[in-house]
Amino acid sequence: MNRLLIADLKRLWRQGLAISLLLGCGISLFVMSNSSMLSLERSRQQYYRDYRFGEVFTALVRAPESLADKIADVPGVQEVQTRIVRDVLLDIPDMVEPASCRLVSIDTADDPMNGIHLLRGRFPVDDDRLEVIVSEMFANSHDFLPGDSLVCIMGGRKQTLRIVGIGMSPEYVYVVQPGMMITDDRRFGIVWMPRRQMAAAFNMEGAFNNLSIDLRPRASTDEVIARVDRITKPFGGTGAHDRDDQVSHRRVADEMSQMKTMAFVTPAIFLAVSAFLFNIVFTRLVNQQTEQIATLRAFGYRPREIGWHYIKMVMLLVFIATVMGWTVGLRLSWWMTSEYVKFFRFPEIDYQFASKHAIAAVGVGASAALIGTFAAIRKAIRLQPAEAMRPAAPKDYRGLIAERTGLSKILSPVGRMVVRRLETNRMATTLSVLGMGLAVAVLVLGSYMQNTIDFLIEFQFEKSQRQDVMLTFVDTLSASSIHDAAHLPGVSDVEPFRSAPVRLRNGTRTRRVGLMGLNAKPNLYRILDDQQQSVSFPVRGGLTVSQKMAELLDVQTGDEVWVDILDRRQPSYRVPIAEVFANFTDPSAYLNRHQLHDLLGEGEQFSGAFLSVDTNRVADLYAEVKQMPTVAGVVDKNAAEASFRDTVSSSSSLMRIVNAVFSGLIALGVIYNCAIIILAERARDLATLRVMGFRRGEVQMVLLGELAVITLLSIPVGLPIGYGLSYVTTLALDTETHRFPLIIERSTYSYAAIVIIAAASLSAIYVRRMLNSLDLVAVLKVKE
Amino acid sequence: MSITQTNVFTARSVTKVYRMGEVDVHALRGVSVEMLAGEFVVILGASGSGKSTLLNILGGLDVPTAGEVTFRDQSLTDADEDDLTEFRREHVGFVFQFYNLIASLTAEENVALVADIARDPLPPTEALRMVGLHDRRDHYPSQLSGGEQQRVAIARAIGKRPDVLLCDEPTGALDVKTGVVVLEAIARINQELGTMTAVITHNAAIADIADRVISLSDGQVADVRVNTSRKQAKELVW
What SMART domains does this protein's entry cite (chain B) (predicted)? Predict the structure, then answer.
């Protein structure tokens, strides 16, 4: 039997390889994506561990150093790190718009909490030379190197800081300016400075305004937070929080969880599809062997032995697919992880092999293959040997749709051959169409995400946000300052806003959020629901929250939630939920601006303003703003959009490219198999035509005609399946905090159709070559 | 129609060597034959005598290793794949032992297939009439007996009015009675259309219906015999 196995493999190696390739693609994509995610996760954990990322954080106004001891005594606290943190404006000569940075104090202690990974230069010396370390991305975007200097306004005085190092920290993987939604490395960075000098500059000797806490194993985070809050409240504590509410970590975690879902769902569908195709194709292969099976049985082989022969064959193919899938998958995961790590900025990569996923993938493939094999073999074995050796029962061509509708009449004999064969081999045709349809579907699935992202960018930056520039103020400003803003160069419209850090509470469910106070009907900074309708904020209307925020807090319209104001000593308020709307951005909460002023017990005080600016005068505006000490930050919407596109394209394009390549390969594999099977089944007819004097091109029409019909049928079948798979993916991506719309543009459908046609053409070229080398005489000398 | 002295096929010292793995198989060893217009030739020989190889070379399905083959004035020796296809297309009708009908086409459609590529085709119904299957033209091959299928194959071969009709063991898979009917059909074509006809067989009894019998043995012409009187197909017994 082993000799037969070798003979069979010699005969069928091309097809076998193509089948293995299908499954191999599924396995490798699955192994690749899951391994990269695991590697990324481990790299992050390692980063956090090696550089001792804190576990609980809090900011306060000013507290004496002695308070740290009190907090260290809280049960569950392992270590306390006190710091001085201040946001200051920078004066960078080559920038028209103002930039700012966050100064963070560092201690000279060995192995400190929230340590800095030094990429260049050295740590600062604690003397009066004002030496600092600058965060990597900020340094890169300004080409700062150790030895350069940086001018900032510190405690009302211009100071020159000497850059001695470039570094990164687990605390600031993502650097987001307060009040901003996205990273802008040019306008905001982190600068680490020795504690003593910061204390001197900000008059904070013996005091601190920021805490990071390391917990003992198994400590209750909630309990520590509650106690720390009680201790820090008198010192302007804004409420402690764990990593989940730490800006950088939350971003990284969100991003990674989304990527993880995407890395699981799409490849899982790919794997299922490729396993299914493996099943189909291998089943057809066994079905072709009916005669051989009958011959073996006639020789006296037992059904079990014959079954074992095919099982060995399928297992060998699965084995090849496994080796291919694991090797390629692992190799690609290294590449992919290193690309992701560049994007996330983890100092070291901890490469992992997602062994559980890898084994599961092979299990899925092997089961699908075995199920198909069993069914086909059982069918073959049930036949009596004598019966099986006879040619298959003649097909009944009467009453075919092609005949009844008269389609045959208008076709040439060759055309009739094609349609009749397709119609009489209904099962095979259906499976071929379905197989190729799945390839089409996978192409849609592999590329629709770009449409969604484009839609979201347009939704966010074009439709929703209509301002050109957003200003944030150092402290809140009064109404008169808005009057000033309206007179800035090029400004045609001003829309002020108030934002306040709050904690929303409903029972045990809480969420920290920047509560935005907006005009009743914002004109520049609009909030749109998922139907692209503006949401309005009526006076005394109550809170308007996004769907995801409502789910996080488990509230609905009419319920009341507690609003804790975090940055001042104030009682909490109960505020009703006025409206819940569906959107596509972070969980968010809005209030009518006047109501927020009332809540905060203030008159009209603004955190910032949205400006509509004449594009030709933006530079003048920035020059002016730079001179305004009251302005903490400026966000140029176009720059923000560009930066967002950049970020998104670097993080998600990898996955998309890989998906597209793999779906193309799957398409090629399916079509190639289809073509080879058709060629095998039609060899005799084709040889007959050649002998009769049909030219190569004319004979190809029979084969290519059939392939073309299958390809063309597969497109309308595959596109809806692709939509369905994308829909399922969208559902899977609907996480606790985010929801994605399902947007599939026509271009994606066209792309899928074009790729499948291209893949079919490529296979056709190969089949043509095989057809040309067909031994006409040998084929005809064999009895059917 | 009578036999003229015009050569349709001329083969001179034709040799064909196949390479089978490590061994060279000499299928033809210097065969020289001529076939005349309108002639009915039977090529007789045992299995492995080289008769099929000779027919394939004459029919443009294969090329000789050495020697010279011409169809009328056209050399088939140096022809490439495309030339051979054109040659078959215009001049040759083939009939094989296993019929090789297209299962998905009716009898008439199988015949019509060649009408599509012929310059001056016989109407398919006419071709079927000549083999006595006019009334079964709408049947699919699976609905026809072996003999009927072979006659459809003959009708298909003559559908393009070929200059030569080459039949490789046309009765090999048939019983005597059916075989006779098939041979009758072939003989009638030869008579009525004047198509030069070559039939390969290992069955010596069939030789009597030919004008000439070329016997092959071990890749060489062993004997060429002219039948002074041709038998009718129905007179044959084997």
Answer: AAA
